[in-house]
């Protein structure tokens, strides 16, 4: 399996004490959820009052990478995390053994962006394209390009395809593999970049209007709440499911990120 580069750093520390699972703050149970900022942490912030009404203090810890949240969940520093899809969770044996999906919330369509050209046809021969370097999102990016006729992958490449699996590249595109969080910043240095929806939104990009290519709403990469195995039925997780899969959240998603984030409930 490809080595994941750059675990990243915790970027937003809580100003309140961190308590273990089942402990209480002012008589309420605590639920610690790790999340990437947009839209995950934003959605969690939206439902804090709903969980408070159910007797649960929701503490949101923000991360800027795709590795540390799973590590923190395994060690018990988190009760759940919200940033990934099932193919990514399945890309690491330890994660598969110790973690599981509790429920799905939304899809963030992956897109191709550029600050140099206005459409795919304008990409020059030999253009540089940055793609995520983690196993599933890299394959997902290449599958997006293949589905739009820009390249062909070997038949056995699958969801974990890499540039080595490209069997036809008629425009001689050159691929740069970067950590997903760095991709928006790479737009000044490459001709185009395939960027995850949450990082596009965080960088001020509108996937619906700014992307050259965009996954359809039928994408299988649903973003999920992940917990340690055996905690799926924890009452706090059930309360989180009720709050996150509510009409309030769906309306907020549709109003805030129309077409860029798609609710699956």
Average pLDDT rating: 90
Class of the largest domain, according to the CATH hierarchy? Alpha Beta
The tally of beta strands, per DSSP, is 15
What's the N-to-C terminus distance? 33 Å
Number of domains: 2
CATH architecture of the largest domain: 3-Layer(aba) Sandwich
- List segments where confidence is low: pLDDT < 50 over at least 5 consecutive residues: 1-20
Q: What percentage of the residues does DSSP assign to strands (E)?
A: 25-35%
Looking at the structure, what is the overall shape? elongated
Report the C-alpha radius of gyration, rounded: 19 Å
CATH superfamily of the largest domain: Periplasmic binding protein-like II
Instruction: Figure out the total of helices.
Output: 9
> Main beta sheet, described?
8 strands, mixed
Enter the CATH topology name of the largest domain.
D-Maltodextrin-Binding Protein, domain 2
Textual characterization of the structure:
The protein is an alpha/beta fold and 265 residues long. It folds into 2 domains: 22-108 and 220-263, Periplasmic binding protein-like II (D-Maltodextrin-Binding Protein, domain 2); 111-214, 3-Layer(aba) Sandwich (D-Maltodextrin-Binding Protein, domain 2). The protein contains 9 helices and 15 strands. It has helices spanning 37-53, 68-74, 86-89, 93-98, 135-147, 197-202, 207-210, 235-244, 247-256, and strands at 10-12, 24-25, 28-35, 56-63, 80-85, 99-107, 111-113, 128-132, 152-153, 166-168, 174-178, 192-195, 213-214, 222-228, 262-263. Strands 1, 2, 3, 4, 5, 6, 14 and 15 form an 8-stranded mixed sheet that branches. Helix 1 (37-53) packs across helix 8. The two termini are 33 Å apart. Residues 1-20 have low confidence and may be disordered.
